[in-house]
Design goal:
InterPro entries: Flavodoxin/NO_synth, Flavoprotein-like_sf, Metallo-B-lactamas, ODP_dom, RibonucZ/Hydroxyglut_hydro, Rubredoxin-O_OxRdtase. By secondary structure, the chain is α/β, with parallel strands linked by helices. The protein has helices at about 55-65, 80-85, 90-95, 105-110, 190-205, 205-215, 235-250, 265-280, 295-305, 325-335, 355-365, 385-395, and strands spanning about 10, 15, 20-25, 25-30, 35, 40, 45-50, 75, 100-105, 125, 130-135, 140-145, 155, 160-165, 225, 255-260, 285-290, 305-315, 320, 340-345, 370, 375. About 35% of the residues lie in helices and about 25% in strands. It binds MU-OXO-diiron (FEO).
Length: about 400
């Protein structure tokens, strides 16, 4: 099959991985994931990053097809996380004359990832603003520390105006025989859900670093964004950049409510669903309900960042919270959840403490408007609770 390509000179040599179930051994990827890699063909040939070990054979086949019998001149290493550095060592053994292009931090960390030394005369040390001419194509290096590892850099190719954005603008999901967002259906909207789940959970903690990169990128004239996961973005740039601005500044994308519940026997679920029904009766705003025991925590976290309101409905368990609620709150905290309206529903057949624990957690986040009145259920919803839930729906929508 012919290689996918960005242009006549820039080929896609990455690979789909449909065999993986959990990315980073924690995020479900039912539609797989891609490990993107590109080859720029000019007087010199540059390979933009390697791929995960899981895609070794496919990648080397693609490289051979792209090289057409020539040898590569440069291997650019944007990011050392193993889903991109997994084949550096094999590549350098197969193409030992290649010059490795990386920044000083990357060269310092490289021995943690490979067992061979890169000799001094095979190193090109990139720094902020350094350029590398391949012929007509010229790469300019832009440092992007903590997006989301310290050594990350991105590259701007000024002739075709391509930003190689490392994990930035990446998303889950295999690509099949398509590459560009302009070739995919229901774009750009269909990109957002999985890109949000990817961004919030993987990069979300480092919002200020992403803002710094966006500021640098705003000075570039960009025609294509080529990330290390998911499709190459070739139109509707305002949509994608607006999403990144919101996600990285922890601002909600739209009005709506996430109700995340933990339940032992279903009574707290009934309260969560009742509140959801009350909200839907009062407004057309979206309401998304998550069972934290069963649903994808990463999706619940991502939707919590998407919408402007969050309700935690938790049962008291062993004098604390159910582990799934503890875990959810931990994830919110790790990803810098903030700037939202929130409320709490607690349940407890005796000595309920979940409400205080959840309220304290929410109040510890930045700039939160947490409802002062919590709904307390003693085992089963009663008429008073139903009235309180109706009032809570009104407060949330007020
Ligand atoms: Fe796709 Fe941070 O690795």
């Amino acid at each position: 099959m012919a290689l996918k390509r960005i242009s006549d000179s820039i080929l896609y040599v990455g690979a789909d991985d449909r065999t993986i179930d959990l990315f980073e051994n924690q995020y479900p990827v039912s539609n797989g994931v891609t490990y993107n890699s590109y080859v720029i063909k000019d007087s010199k040939i540059a390979v933009m990053d390697t791929v995960d070990e899981r895609a070794t054979d496919q990648w080397f086949d693609n490289l051979e097809e792209a090289f057409e019998g020539k040898a590569p001149d440069y291997l650019v290493v944007s990011h050392l996380e193993p889903d991109h550095s997994g084949n550096i060592e094999r590549f350098l053994k197969k193409y030992p004359d290649t010059i490795v292009v990386a920044n000083a931090k990357t060269f310092a960390m490289l021995p943690q990832f490979i067992d061979i030394d890169v000799p001094e005369d095979k190193r090109f040390v990139a720094a902020e603003g350094t350029t590398l001419a391949l012929g007509k194509h010229v790469l300019t290096f832009v440092m992007a520390p903590m997006v989301h590892w310290p050594e990350v850099m991105v590259e701007y190719e000024s002739t075709e105006k391509v930003l190689f954005s490392a994990d930035g603008f990446g998303t889950f999901g295999a690509l099949g025989d398509r590459l560009k967002t302009s070739e995919l259906e229901n774009m750009p909207q269909s990109w957002a859900d999985e890109a949000r789940r990817y961004f919030i959970n993987i990069v979300g903690k480092y919002g200020p670093s992403v803002q710094g990169l966006l500021k640098k990128a705003s000075a570039l004239d960009i025609s294509v964004i080529a990330p290390l996961h998911g499709p190459v973005i070739d139109k509707d740039f305002d949509f994608y950049i607006d999403k990144y601005m919101r996600w990285s500044s922890y601002q909600p994308e739209e009005k709506g409510t996430v109700i995340a519940y933990s339940t032992l026997h279903g009574n707290t679920r009934k309260a969560a669903l009742k509140l959801g029904d009350d909200l839907k009766k009062l407004s057309d705003e979206p309401v998304v309900v998550y069972d934290l025991s069963r649903d994808d925590c990463a999706k619940a976290v991502a939707d919590s960042f998407r919408f402007d309101k969050l309700v935690l409905a938790g049962v008291t368990y062993d004098g604390g919270l159910m582990p799934c609620m503890e875990d959810f709150i931990y994830h919110l905290k790790m990803k810098n959840y903030q700037n939202r309206k929130a409320a709490v529903i607690e349940n407890g057949s005796w000595g309920p403490v979940a409400g205080k624990l959840m309220t304290d957690a929410l109040a510890s986040f930045k700039n939160m408007n947490v409802c002062e009145t919590k709904v307390t259920i003693k085992t089963r919803l009663n008429a008073k609770n139903e009235s309180e839930l109706s009032d809570l729906a009104k407060w949330l929508l007020n």
